[in-house]
Design brief:
single chain; alpha+beta; 10 strands; 240 residues
């Protein structure tokens, strides 16, 4: 069997043991080799597996499977040690991509159907966050893309105005060069600015809290036309 990378190889080995109700442990791992033995190796189970990174094929290959699982599982447990958040995240990633708001209870039922194990609510919640990160990137990466996003908006939507307030980033009491923290940001699209003159001179501001790693408040400024239709004119993200 061949795999594109080491992570895929490890996942396949874990899934094999999970599906067959066995457990294994890593005894050696580096950039070129992987070696697993049964968790009950010291009790006499002879199963072992070796994999390597083939330079010729540029793939990870299962090179050897020795012995058989001679250990006995006295009863099926509800959960499996190797069914961790990383394995679950890989399993549920397509489901979460299709339906990001899917409930944790529904995901637990899907995992039980697929793997015949019932992971805990906490483990499944962590796996869902990992799956969302695999699909959309993490919070830090997303916020780091904001300058490029606003630059693209100003380039593609003429007249768009963006104003951001930042501060220095400190680590260990020293300023980190080339990095800054966003405190607040304001933006308004060119067409919104141009249309402002033709609406009622009353501005309404509403806000909603942001939830996640980085909290804050999203503010939206609106006005109305003669027929009382709402027109958005500006946006801002500020600290609570």
């Amino acid at each position: 069997m061949t795999f594109d990378d080491k992570a895929q190889c490890i996942r396949a080995i874990k899934e094999y043991n999970i599906r067959n109700h066995f457990d294994c442990k890593t005894i050696y791992s580096d950039q070129r080799r992987l070696n697993f033995v049964c968790k009950l190796h010291e009790n006499g189970c002879t199963w072992s597996l070796g994999a390597c990174n083939s330079k010729r094929h540029n793939k990870w290959i299962i090179k050897s499977i020795r012995g058989h699982h001679t250990c006995l599982v006295p009863m099926l447990r509800q959960d499996h040690r190797q069914l961790d958040k990383h394995v679950i995240a890989q399993i549920i990633q397509p489901i979460v991509k299709t339906n990001p708001t899917i409930s944790i209870k529904t995901l637990i039922a899907e995992i039980k159907t697929f793997m015949n194990y019932t992971p805990s609510y906490k483990k499944t919640w962590l796996a869902k966050q990992k799956a969302l990160e695999m699909i959309h990137g993490n919070w830090k990466e997303s916020y780091a893309k904001l300058p490029k996003l606003f630059g693209a908006l100003q380039s593609c939507v003429p007249g768009t105005v963006v104003a951001a307030q930042t501060e220095s980033l400190y680590e260990g009491g020293e300023i980190v060069p080339g990095k800054r923290l966003i405190k607040c940001v304001f933006w308004s699209f060119g067409p919104c600015i141009n249309g402002f003159a033709y609406f009622k001179p009353i501005v309404q501001v509403d806000g909603t809290w942001l939830y996640g790693k980085y909290i804050g408040t999203l503010l939206i400024a609106t006005i109305q036309d003669g027929a009382n239709y709402i027109f958005l004119i500006a946006y801002a993200i500020v600290e609570d």
